Amino acid sequence: MSTAIERFDDKARDAFDHIGQNEVHVGELLRHRVYTRFLHWMVALFFFLALFTGFSIYLPWLFRWFTPIFGGGPLSREMHPWFGLGFVVFFGLQTLNWIRPMTWTAADTKWMRNIRNIAAGKEKQDPPETGFFNAGQKAQFWEIVGGCAVYLVTGIILWAGTRTFGRWAVAVSYVLHDISAIIMLGGIFIHIYLSTIGEPGTFQAMIRGAVSEAWAWTFHPAWYKEMTGRDPVEACEEARRHGKFEGK
Q: Whole-model pTM?
């Protein structure tokens, strides 16, 4: 990674730590600092703003009740590309922030091969090599990176229109823009499910920045070991013996 990017991220993290706070209680680990959480919620905000205004443009007969929220159909159409641009910009900053932990490794390939058992809850803990992010999270991250690239290119073509890029370029851009939005929306639904019901305790990481040690050794054992120096399996068994943890 470029040292310039590292310096930029370090300055941003330090600056935002002075604005907000990282609330970590006993038995918890700091997972996401204020800067990361800010970017996450800004990405989410602009994604849904772009999504809702996009619905009102592409399917007005079904989602016309969205348009009054944004001041009517014409204004929704005007605001949509700006919301989309905001989404791309903030996710671009998140990409710089997460580029190192999102790097694909051999452990991620192994995780994907075992995804059925993990998704079905047959594994009491994620594979011991699972670090800060698992392979599923990384796959979604890189899908969004690709989706942002598609959004940006097709969005510029649609924004400029047929006079600049021609009828065929605009027609193809409409299709690619919509397909990318559908894929990303599906991923967002999965993300919301896993961050709430699927993996209880995840949501608070993006609210106050911390997760329980039990959550860490269950879903990200390698990261738990890196943070505490303790073996995640031994920590889990010790908690079970003391009646402090019941597992998945």
A: 0.90
